[in-house]
Specification:
The protein is mostly beta strands. It has a single domain, classed as Hcp1-like (Pnp Oxidase, Chain A), CATH 2.30.110.
Length: 147
Amino acid sequence: MATAERRDPYRSFNFQLEIDGVPLGAFSECSGLTAEGDAVDYREGTDFQPNVRKLIGLRKYTNIMLKRGYTQDKSLWDWHDNIVNGLPDRRNVTIVLMNEQRQPVVRWHAENAWLNKIEAPSFKASGNEVAMESVEIIHEGLTIDRS
C-alpha cells in the first residue's frame, strides 16, 4: 500500500548538523540556507525590442549561522583553530530536517564550507540563561535533497 503524501508542514525545531557525513549534534537555531543570484542587464545594438534582456548572473550563498548551548564538544573550536593556523580545512556541511519520528526528510548540503566566525557564550552573573555559542559557516554552494 502506497503512503499518502504529507500535507502538514514540518516543524522547524527538529534539525541537526552533519559535517562530512558525521552528525555533530543538535543546534537551537539555524539560519542562512539561502541561494540567490544576480541578474545581468544586456542589450545588443541590433535588438528590436526597446528594453534590456535579463541574463542569469553569478550565484551567491548566504553564510550559515548556527547557535547551540555550550557543551564540552570542542570539534567546532578545533575546526576554527585549523583555519586560524592557515590550514585550508574545507568540509561539506549538511543541515538535516527531521519529522516528528526523528527521521530525516530534507537535507541541505553546503559545499566547500569553512568556519569563518565562532563566538563564545556571553556571561551575566545575575542571569539564568543557557550559555550559548554561535558559529558562522561560509560555503560555495547549496543544494537540497528531498529523498
